């Protein structure tokens, strides 16, 4: 969010910055076509994680609704790549709006916990309409009120809503009794880990903002490519990418076990990544 006054920014292919945000990484330092190299390329990891999750959803032939989270996850990565590569407002929207849509989709899955996967059930349709109306209203308001703090507050509120809903479902709701205690603990643990990674990534993001000038001096002193390790916003992409995968898997497993038969579903780990 804070561009250093000490960084040497170069002119680039995409012209003047129209986005409401400019990050600590120097602009067009390494390419005439990519404004922020590290912040752009770090999104390839996000896209890869999204495709990893989508591949397994399709492989296991899970209900179609569970593909939407991973498709949205991938769109966030693509939009974020475009935003950091251009620093244009239209691509900022391509990054920030899918963040809202993806988290509200998770919220929909968490509230639509009635048995069965019929997309025409009253609860499913009602919650879906409410989510679509909210997304449309936010999109309209954000285009008019171009304040990134507004977006961050709304996004954070939805994330907190998801975390609170998961905690309620696995600890206090009557529906939790459909899932054995050991499996509920697995779901709670993986979701908690994902949320913690989000918070840690947000912490690094804020350090990048607050100490941008100091970090810029260190980058110049260290030199590149080692200085790429000091791009805090890129670390935000990496940690929230992993955190998003964990929370999506936790949401998916919880919903599948509550809407279906828990014996048909289980969490597995492939190296560092669950599925």
Could you please describe the fold and organization of this structure?
- This protein is mostly helical.
- The protein has helices at 37-41, 43-59, 65-86, 89-111, 122-144, 148-171, 181-210, 212-222, 232-259; strands at residues 269-270, 273-274.
- The protein has a two-stranded antiparallel sheet.
- A hairpin with a 2-residue loop joins strand 1 and strand 2 (273-274).
- Helix 3 (65-86) runs antiparallel to helix 9, helix 4 packs parallel to helix 6 (148-171) and helix 7 (181-210) runs antiparallel to helix 9.
- The longest helix is centred in the C-terminal third of the chain and has 30 residues, at 181-210.
- The mean pLDDT is 88.
Keywords summarizing the entry:
9 helices, mainly alpha, 67% helix, 275 residues, 2 strands, two-stranded antiparallel sheet
Write the layout of secondary structure elements.
Elements: H1 37-41, H2 43-59, H3 65-86, H4 89-111, H5 122-144, H6 148-171, H7 181-210, H8 212-222, H9 232-259, E1 269-270, E2 273-274
Antiparallel strand pairs: 1-2
Helix pairs in contact: 2-3, 2-9, 3-4, 3-9, 4-5, 4-6, 6-7, 7-9
Question: Could you give a quick summary of the protein structure above?
Answer:
By secondary structure, the chain is mainly alpha-helical.
């Amino acid at each position: 969010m804070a561009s250093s006054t000490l960084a040497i920014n170069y002119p680039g292919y995409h012209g003047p910055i129209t986005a409401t945000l400019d990050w600590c990484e120097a602009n067009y330092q390494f390419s005439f076509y990519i404004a922020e190299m590290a912040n752009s390329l770090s999104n390839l990891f996000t896209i890869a994680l999204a495709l990893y999750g989508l591949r397994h959803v399709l492989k296991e032939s899970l209900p179609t609704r569970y593909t939407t989270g991973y498709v949205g996850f991938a769109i966030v990565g693509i939009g974020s790549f475009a935003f950091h590569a251009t620093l244009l407002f239209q691509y900022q929207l391509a990054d920030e709006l899918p963040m809202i849509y993806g988290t509200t989709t998770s919220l929909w899955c968490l509230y639509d916990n009635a048995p069965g996967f019929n997309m025409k059930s009253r609860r499913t349709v009602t919650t879906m309409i409410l989510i679509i109306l909210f997304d449309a209203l936010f999109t309209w308001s954000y285009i008019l009120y171009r304040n990134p703090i507004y977006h961050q507050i709304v996004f954070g509120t939805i994330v907190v809503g998801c975390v609170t809903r998961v905690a309620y479902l696995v600890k206090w709701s009557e529906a939790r009794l459909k899932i054995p205690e050991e499996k509920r603990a697995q779901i709670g643990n993986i979701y908690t880990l994902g949320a913690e990674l989000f918070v840690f990534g947000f912490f690094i993001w804020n350090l990048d903002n607050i100490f941008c000038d100091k970090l810029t001096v260190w980058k110049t002193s260290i030199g590149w490519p080692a200085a790429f390790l000091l791009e805090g916003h890129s670390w935000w992409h990496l940690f929230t990418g992993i955190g998003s995968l964990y929370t999506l898997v936790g949401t998916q497993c919880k919903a599948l076990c509550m809407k279906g038969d828990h014996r048909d579903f289980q969490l597995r780990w492939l190296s560092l990544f669950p599925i």
